[in-house]
């Protein structure tokens, strides 16, 4: 394990007091000689000077590092809101870094937080890679991954496979026979694999797959390709994807659901005000975030935490699948 470098480590190497190091970090007065010694000690230890260095005299900095995949995501935004609600109640502050759906940037953020000396890290993850697993073996900072699972990591996530089954069962009961499923990259195991597998377990009709990303615009551009399969139902791996196709169908005067039904996953507010309203699996992302925050606080005080899958979702049957 790589030990967190603290102000005490710097002071010991420099042969000065912690208060002297603190004055240096906060640009207070110290002699030129001591400044040079401390500067060298910081370089030698790899200590990262930052705005919370003055807090290092206490056991906890009261700072949690949070990695989010993107700032314009409803799911990430709601999860983050839940996390912050609990952390604020416990007088913790958050430092938020965006990975921009890039696994490499997610790894860089985790490494940076460990070097900065935050108390704990919550990662709303885009996927678990071998490189990420290797990184986690190097550090002892309590860390929880949200949205993805791996037996060697602390995680909390929604049961995407069960959610997929729930939507698949509904569409099977509606007697749809020919489905086009717009899926995301399988590097996102939760959405790209588990959610899809659950759907396939429950839906017995034909399923044609088209790969897209998470954007409304990309899904819209795929719509002409989708229609070649002559589907009676289209499923988006997220509501955003489903609504991108939704827009194209309406522009082409294709009636929903009479000509083609549409459904998604997420429960985004916009799915309720679309016309017709979108059938969707509504996830309680905010509750997921709260539970992630409660879990990281448990780890911080040495309590046992058990990784888990949560069933905080429900099927909202709306007009887009009701013939």
From TrEMBL:
Domain HTH lacI-type: 5-58
PROSITE patterns for the chain: HTH_CROC1, HTH_LACI_1, HTH_LACI_2
Chain ranges of the HTH cro/C1-type domain: 3-26
InterPro entries xrefs: Cro/C1-type_HTH (IPR001387), HTH_LacI (IPR000843), Lambda_DNA-bd_dom_sf (IPR010982), Peripla_BP/Lac1_sug-bd_dom (IPR001761), Peripla_BP_I (IPR028082)
Keyword terms, alphabetized: DNA-binding, Transcription, Transcription regulation
A single MF term (Gene Ontology): DNA-binding transcription factor activity
Cross-referenced SUPFAM superfamilies: lambda repressor-like DNA-binding domains, Periplasmic binding protein-like I
Protein name as catalogued: LacI family sucrose operon transcriptional repressor
Keyword field contains DNA-binding: yes
Cited Pfam families: LacI, Peripla_BP_1
């Amino acid at each position: 394990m790589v030990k967190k470098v603290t102000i005490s480590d710097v002071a010991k190497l420099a042969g000065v007091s912690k208060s002297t190091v603190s004055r240096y970090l906060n640009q207070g007065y110290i002699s030129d000689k001591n400044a040079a010694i401390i500067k060298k000690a910081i370089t030698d230890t790899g200590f990262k000077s930052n705005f919370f260095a003055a807090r290092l005299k206490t056991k906890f900095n009261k700072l949690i590092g949070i990695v989010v995949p993107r700032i314009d995501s409803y799911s990430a935004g709601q999860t983050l809101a839940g996390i912050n609600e609990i952390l604020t109640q416990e007088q913790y502050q958050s430092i938020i870094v965006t990975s921009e759906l890039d696994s490499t940037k997610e790894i860089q953020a985790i490494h940076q937080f460990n070097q900065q000396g935050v108390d704990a890290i919550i990662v709303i993850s885009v996927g678990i890679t071998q490189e990420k697993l290797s990184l986690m073996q190097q550090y002892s900072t309590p860390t929880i991954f949200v949205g993805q699972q791996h037996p060697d990591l602390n995680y909390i996530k929604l049961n995407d496979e069960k959610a997929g089954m729930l939507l698949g069962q509904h569409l099977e009961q509606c007697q749809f026979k020919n489905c086009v499923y717009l899926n995301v990259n399988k590097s996102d195991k939760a959405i790209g694999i588990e959610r899809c597998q659950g759907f396939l377990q429950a839906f017995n009709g034909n399923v044609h797959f088209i790969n897209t990303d998470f954007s409304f615009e990309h899904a819209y551009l795929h719509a002409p390709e989708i229609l070649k399969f002559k589907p009676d139902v289209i499923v988006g791996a997220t509501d955003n994807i489903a609504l991108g196709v939704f827009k194209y169908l309406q522009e082409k005067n294709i009636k929903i659901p009479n000509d083609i039904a549409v459904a998604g996953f997420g429960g985004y507010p916009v799915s309720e005000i679309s016309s017709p309203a979108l059938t969707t699996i509504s996830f309680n992302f905010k509750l997921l975030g709260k539970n992630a925050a409660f879990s990281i606080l448990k780890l911080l005080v040495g309590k046992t935490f058990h990784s888990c899958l949560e069933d905080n979702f429900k099927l909202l049957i709306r007009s887009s699948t009701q013939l």
